[in-house]
Structures are given as structure tokens and as C-alpha cells.
Amino acid sequence: MKKILLLGAQGMLGSEIFNISLDREDFEIVPFSRFNLDLTKEEEIIEKLTAVIAEKNIDAVVNASAYTVVDKCESGKGEELSFAINAVAPRYITQACSEQNIPLFHFSTDYVFSGDTNQSFCENDDTEKFPPMNKYGMHKLFGEKEVLQYDKGFVLRTSWLAGQYGQNFVNKMVHLMKNVSEIKIVKNEWGSPSFTHDVAESVIKIMISDTLPKNKILHIVNERSGEYKGGVSRLAFVEEIKEYLGFETRITPVKTFDTVAKRPISTALNNTMAEKLPDWKDGLHVFLAKEKEKIEKKRAVEKKKQKAAEIYRAQQEKLRAERAENTKEETEK
Ligand SMILES: NC(=O)c1ccc[n+]([C@@H]2O[C@H](COP(=O)([O-])OP(=O)(O)OC[C@H]3O[C@@H](n4cnc5c(N)ncnc54)[C@H](OP(=O)(O)O)[C@@H]3O)[C@@H](O)[C@H]2O)c1
After folding, report:
1. What spacing in Å lies between the alpha carbon of 311 and ligand 1's midpoint?
2. Which numeric CATH code is attached to 2-166+193-222+269-279?
3. Which atom of ligand 1 is nearest to the CA of 14?
4. How far, in Å, CA of 263 to CA of 233, rounded?
5. What pLDDT digit, counting tens, does each position of 240-289 carry?
């Protein structure tokens, strides 16, 4: 049975990988969070990691930790944290894995690229030709390069992630649809929506396999077909959420949205090297299935209440009419 050390085990993706492992007997996860190892303390990384890898007989390391608050990465304390965790820490994690001669699977992001409308990127596309537009992307790209120097270091890029264990774009949209009548969505943004459950299942297969991936970079994203091949626009993504959950919220396209960190127009990733994940719409529907059930139950209860209120009103009306008729008859007598 393979033993995997998971960094970032309490994050959105890390929690998904860890929770799946609890029902499985073919591999074991040793979970690490910042309480076990603070990745800003670079002097501790190699020592602590090499010790735990040797002590627990670890077969591979998965790094799902990162500093992911994209806007905060642009300046100040956030920029320092992003540089330490996203750019520098991967160097030491790589060194520890290399000293112990075990594979490292390091998660990265679509933001290492920046493209134009409907442009999508394959694993070996050149990041120099389409360089990142914000500090988060730059730091993650720096981290990737550290990992790729090791022959058993693999970069797993994913994108537009949503899952049950963290705050994300899909949850935010559902919350807004429940509470406001109109949502403004930027029309010039394309990407590849991906779901932690599908990404986690895919990386588990990769890390427990007896053979290492053929390519050093993999794109672990949900599939897109037909009109979405070049990328899913934010608008189409939000429209799909709205339609699936049966909301009537107005979606208004806007040209730009003010954010501290610049967002690239398109960073859709193509998976041409790893096993395919389900289509993004299927991933979204599975992710929202429980939410849909809750919403539909609530709507059914409200409908029943409305019907009961209508019946009650009709009965009252009938009673009033009967009483009026009786009074009229009494007076006539
Ligand atoms: N979210 C997305 O939309 C998205 C898109 C593309 C790529 N990705 C990539 O996918 C991977 C997973 O992302 P995610 O959304 O699951 O991230 P997340 O929810 O923000 O989780 C990141 C994890 O990193 C840990 N961490 C932060 N600072 C740390 C420190 N100083 N020392 C040790 N651990 C620290 C956090 O620990 P605590 O739990 O203790 O805070 C958390 O568990 C990342 O590589 C990210 O770049 C994400």
C-alpha cells in the first residue's frame, strides 16, 4: 500500500484528497497542514520533510498547499507570503523529495499563462510566450520551475476550482442568486472550470500508479466539448449554474470588473496527457446536486404553504358568503 505525504491537507483540494483516502484501502495519506510545517519557514522545510519521509516510509509527496488570495499577492504582506509559499517553498520541498529519491506532485495554476479570447493552452506551451499577468501567476511559475528541475518532480496544473471544502466562485454565485435579483459578470474571461472531486480522483490515480507520468507537466482539468473547446466564459459558467438550479436572477454582462490583480482574458487549459476528467457541466451538476435538492425541497414546501393559504382564503370567503346569505334570510323573515 502506497503512503503519500499530503501538504495543504486542510485546503479546498487537500481536504478532498484526504477525505477520499479515508474510504480507500489501496493507499494511505499522511496529512500535513501549516501546523505541522509552516512553509514560510524555509530553514525548517528540508529537515522536517526529510525526517517525516524517512520515518513514515513515504512513497510520494503531493503539494496542494499555496497562498491563493490572488489580489493580496500583489503587494505588502500578501506578496511576501505568496513569494515564500508559492515561489520559494517548492525549491525546498523538491530538495527534500530528491534527497529521499521519491516523486513530488506539485499543484499549479492556469494563471501561469495569459491568453486572448478563446485561446487555450496545452501542457508544453511556452509560458515565456504567454507570460503571467499577476504576481500570483508569476510566483507559481517560479515554483513550477524549481519542481521541474528534479527528474521525479511533476507539475499538475488545475484551474477555476470549486469543491465542497472551501469558498469558491460557484458557492459565491449560488449565494448571490439566492439573495439578489441581478448579478454583473465580466464578459471577457475564459477558463476551464474544474471540480475538486474529479481533480482529486485523477491525482490519486496518478500518485498510486506504479509508473510515473510520461510528461513532466499535466493539466488536470474537467473536459470541455463543442462550443466550449476554446474555454468556458464566466458568463456561460454562471448561466449554467442559474439554469441547473432554476433561479430567475438577471445576469448582466459587463466589460470589466475592478480587481487589484489583473486577470488574464483566457487561460483555459487542455488536458492532452493525462486520463480525461468528466465534462465540466457534469462536474458542476454533481457538485451542486445536494444544493439543488435543498433548493427544490424548500420550493416544494413554499408551494405547499401557498396552496394551503389559497385553500384557507377560499374557505373563509365561502364562509363569509354563507353567513351573509343567512343574515339576509333572517332579516327577510
Ligand atoms: N482555487 C483555485 O481556483 C485554484 C485554481 C488553479 C490552481 N489552484 C491550485 O491548486 C492548489 C490547491 O488550491 P486550493 O484552492 O485548494 O488552495 P487553498 O484552499 O487556499 O488551500 C491552500 C492550503 O495551503 C496551506 N498553506 C497556506 N499557507 C501555508 C503555510 N505558510 N504553511 C503551510 N501551509 C500553508 C493552507 O493551510 P491552512 O489550511 O492551514 O490555511 C491550505 O491548506 C494550489 O496549488 C493552487 O495554486 C487553485
Report:
1. 54
2. 3.40.50.720
3. 16
4. 13
5. 999 999 999 999 999 887 899 999 999 999 999 999 999 999 999 999 99
